[in-house]
Amino acid sequence: MEIVADDLESYLEHTTDEENSLLKRVNRETYLKETMPHMLSGHYQGRVLSLLSKLVAPKRILEIGTFTGYATLCLAEGLQEDGILHTIDINAEQQERVQRYFDESAFADKISYHIGDAAVILPTLDETFDLVFIDADKKRNLYYFETIINQVPSGGLILIDNVLWKGKVLDSKPDNQTKQIIDLNARLAQDKRVEKVILPIRDGLFALRKK
Question: What one GO molecular function would you report for this record (predicted)?
Answer without folding.
Answer: S-adenosylmethionine-dependent methyltransferase activity
